[in-house]
Queue: 3 jobs
Job 1
Amino acid sequence: MPNNILKIFKKIEHINGLYEDVPDLSRRSAILIPVLCPRIDFENKILNILNWKLIFTIRSGHLKEHAGEVSFPGGRIDHGESPQQTALREANEEIALEPSKILSTIKLNDSFARSGYHIVPFCSLFIDDKNLRCNEDEVSFIVPLSIQELLNINSWSEERSIMQLKRRVWHFPMNIKNVGDIDIWGATGNILKDFLIRIETLL
């Protein structure tokens, strides 16, 4: 087991990222950032963080909330579930990421969505994406993007008023082959910014 890769991944959790003042919201959800370390790197103990890929989804157009937007797998926390259990369940339901394939899971800073959800984000490392597939009821595309690609995006932020709060919202615009122009923004953009701040500190 290449403990150096797992050790570095776990270290991300303890680095300061983007902190948000989350309002008191009764609706709670959890999301998972699936992080793919190439199997060849993992098996040969090659630590190339910039080559790791984050797995995004494009939400199906018929959904009631955030239809067609870029997101991470996630959803409402069911009664009796922990936030981490929700995040792992949703990733399995949306993109067929099996919990048994996950090597390690860490937590990032909480965020919130304009739809009124308090979001608890987690991040899981895995090495095999050959069985990933869309649940077409919820996801229209799976979009893997390397950390290097994400750091290269000309990101920008704006101040918005959401639920009587002033909030800085991050945007990550780019063009994806077979998908077109996308903008990773809102809660997803802010959670991504939290993750990338930690990566830049780590590097």
Job 2
Amino acid sequence: MVKRVLRHSFFNERINMKIGILGFQGAFLEHEQHIRTLGHEAVDVRYTEQLEELDGIILPGGESTTIGKLLIRTGMMEPLRKKIEAGFPVWGTCAGMILLAKKLVNDSTAHLAVMDIAVRRNAYGTQIDSFDTRVLIPEVSKEPIPLVFIRAPYIEEVGEQVKVMCCLNGNIVAARQQNMLVTSFHPELTEDSAFHRYFVNMCQN
């Protein structure tokens, strides 16, 4: 513990972070690779006890209903919700965005329900409607970032404390509320680590 405090005190520009990736489903291995590429430790999270050792957590894409059921079955739902409400950094990509939303436009079931956003599931259609593009998001990178959309949701409404980070064709696809970050798209499926670096910086701060 003392060693960790010293590293935070004297080497703020380069802190070795321990980032968890919920490992129930989805592209968690790809997220882990990006975190390791940036020189930080990636943890495959499947048990509640692991939450206590992390500096932040990524909720990857997949099937939100299935992931939600697994969070309940493993007993992780309530401990994770309480940690996020207390300021624990979290990033939800695609299904992870759905898990964090307080309201789902076309579904009566909310999961963690911690972020003040209303999300429409499968807003971009089916698997065959998947697409990719490049967009400049100044807060994240000075260069355009590749965005990959796969059966993606988007945000229809945001609360007063939510900062919209990116819109695409009039739809909100990236946003942040204090310690919570969400993206409709999948940065982990590209070779660009800008969003992962942004989230690591959130965890450091």
Job 3
Amino acid sequence: MFDTVVVATDGSDSVKRAVDIALDLADRFDAEVHALSVVDASEVDASPEQLRAELRTALETTADAALATVEERAERDVTTATREGRPAVEICEYAREIDADVIATGTRGRHGENRLLLGSVAERIVRTSPVPVLTVRQLEPAGDGDGEEGDEIASNA
């Protein structure tokens, strides 16, 4: 069913559970794992010109660390890639290029009225992806006061 899983990662806390769930999915289906991190070109372009090279280097270092984390957590080989551009566009394009079966990504959990909203990158991926998208919400710490425990996983499949 799933031969190729793309794990979109930025190394943030909100993606850690997504990495674990994506790797579990890949293990269950004996699928190839591709980890992708995207350096957001708009962040670089929006910075003062004298800081752009330094910011790009910092973002690339963060991307490398995020990919290394996926490799460390995996019990299989992981193909890694870093791209620069608009994250949602680059993730979807990468999935097309490698003929992926699913993209896994984290999403920022929200409280109150906006609880069901995804992070902006995750939302764009879900809306534009050529393949199913597994979004994984980070669990709230115990005792957060909302009375709910449990995973929320959304998919466009």
